[in-house]
């Protein structure tokens, strides 16, 4: 049971993390909006970059992108919280049933990886060259987030046997 409880607690902890990130972005919209604006407009990357054609300088698109990020964070939080609840309800079940109960949490971790790996590392980091900005480079923070998600996802996916 210890491993099952650990899987539930870790899932719930990352649900709380994603919820706080979404909450902070909604209640202090301007702080991280500036981050999105600068990354998408590519105004702090290396001067003379030939990739500037990728820049988005339309304000409503900045808001749309930021909204998509917030929705992804909130969706991650809800799915992980629901996933932890489903795991809790299946904690006394057979190994087969507990393994099947992991589905919602797995979807939640996948949503988190879409936000922090695909969104921040692939799109922000490479497409918009966020790595070139000294002031608006969120790759280190995103790395911490998605590695935590990935680590727990791997742990969660370890098969569970029947309880003694």
Automatic annotation (TrEMBL):
It holds the Pfam family DUF2165. Residues 1-18 form the signal peptide. Keywords: Membrane, Signal, Transmembrane, Transmembrane helix. The chain crosses the membrane at residues 65-88, 104-129, 141-157. This is DUF2165 domain-containing protein. The lineage of its organism: Bacteria, Pseudomonadati, Pseudomonadota, Gammaproteobacteria, Pseudomonadales.
